[in-house]
């Protein structure tokens, strides 16, 4: 459906990953090796927390309906910005129209959210799911995607206090509504959420066959494995990235996130937690 990446660590130009990597996100938008679609050209988004603000500040967003490979503004911004935490997403639309309000990542206060996947038979479930969103949050739904509804369900269930439990409740709601309406596999996807300090990434589907998701190994380990690769010197010791598919072909550089798992990125490294059993 889409491809995305999330980075945290020392301030870094997004271009290092989304433009310049061997299998960069922009290259994946043209030729995805592991995605459900080879081409992801229905718009893109970049969201970043400014390097000169304290962790947890308000992220900035740039969205475009242009294909990522064809947008000069993306290249200008990606080289001009330095950020300690950023999201980027390239979209393959699965029904909702190609418009800026449907481009990821989405934002609420200091939180960002992006999704690769879909809600099965979303139009059948949409009314019930939207009505489950807290009325105070409803005006903030700007687009027409299933992803933005999931984000606002998670906010409704307490995302800002407990992201993992809020996502569990949001997914349970999707599955409950879907199964009640005869949708066999309501939830599919990988999700990234951040408050500006920590990144939570989720891999889950009702069918138990989720979209691909990987994270990089620790940079010190990578340098020991590949001392001759000078490009690794671009990254600080806290640099970590979660991606829909690996950004290079170095064996062992990226590890697959297990099915039905939350991978958490923070100052001390990676942490896994179980998420949900497939319904």
Task: Describe this entry's structure for a reader.
GO terms for molecular function: transferase activity. Keywords: Glutamine amidotransferase, Transferase. It is a single chain. The protein has a seven-stranded antiparallel β-sheet. The protein has a six-stranded antiparallel β-sheet with strand order 5-6-7-8-12-13. It is globular and about 55 Å long. The longest helix is centred in the middle third of the chain and has 18 residues. It has 279 residues and is α+β, with helices and mostly antiparallel strands. It is built from seven helices and 13 strands. The mean pLDDT is 93.
CATH topology: Glutamine Phosphoribosylpyrophosphate, subunit 1, domain 1
> How is the biggest beta sheet arranged?
7 strands, antiparallel
The CATH class designation is Alpha Beta
Helix content: 10-25%
* Topology, number of strands: 13
Number of alpha- plus pi-helical segments? 7
Structural class, please?
alpha+beta
* Total number of distinct structural domains: 1
Return Rg in Å: 18 Å
- Biggest sheet: strand arrangement: 3-2-4-1-10-9-11
Task: Identify the CATH homologous superfamily.
Answer: Aminohydrolase, N-terminal nucleophile (Ntn) domain
Overall 3D form: globular
């Amino acid at each position: 459906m889409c491809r995305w990446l999330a980075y945290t660590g020392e301030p870094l130009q997004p271009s290092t990953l989304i433009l310049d990597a061997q299998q960069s996100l922009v290259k994946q938008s043209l030729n995805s090796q592991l995605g459900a679609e080879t081409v992801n050209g229905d718009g893109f988004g970049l969201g970043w927390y400014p390097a000169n603000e304290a962790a947890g500040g308000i992220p900035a967003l740039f969205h475009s309906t242009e294909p990522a490979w064809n947008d000069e503004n993306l290249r200008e911004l990606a080289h001009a910005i330095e950020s300690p935490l950023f999201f980027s997403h390239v979209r393959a639309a699965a029904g909702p129209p190609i418009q800026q309000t449907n481009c990821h990542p989405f934002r609420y206060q200091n939180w960002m959210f992006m999704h690769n996947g879909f809600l099965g038979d979303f139009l059948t479930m949409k009314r019930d799911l939207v009505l489950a969103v807290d009325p105070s949050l409803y005006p903030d739904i700007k687009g027409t995607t299933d992803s933005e509804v999931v984000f606002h369900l998670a906010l409704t269930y307490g995302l800002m206090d407990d992201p993992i439990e809020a996502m569990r409740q949001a997914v349970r709601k999707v599955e409950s509504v879907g199964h009640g309406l005869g949708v066999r596999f309501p939830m599919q996807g990988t999700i990234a959420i951040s408050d500006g300090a920590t990144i939570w990434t989720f891999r889950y589907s009702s069918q138990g066959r989720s979209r691909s998701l990987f994270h990089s190994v620790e940079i010190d380990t990578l340098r020991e494995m590949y001392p001759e690769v000078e490009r690794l010197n671009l990254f600080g010791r806290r640099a970590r990235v979660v991606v829909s598919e690996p950004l290079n072909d170095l064996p062992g550089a990226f590890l697959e996130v297990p099915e039905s798992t939350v991978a958490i990125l923070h100052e001390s490294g990676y942490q896994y937690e179980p998420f949900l059993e497939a319904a």
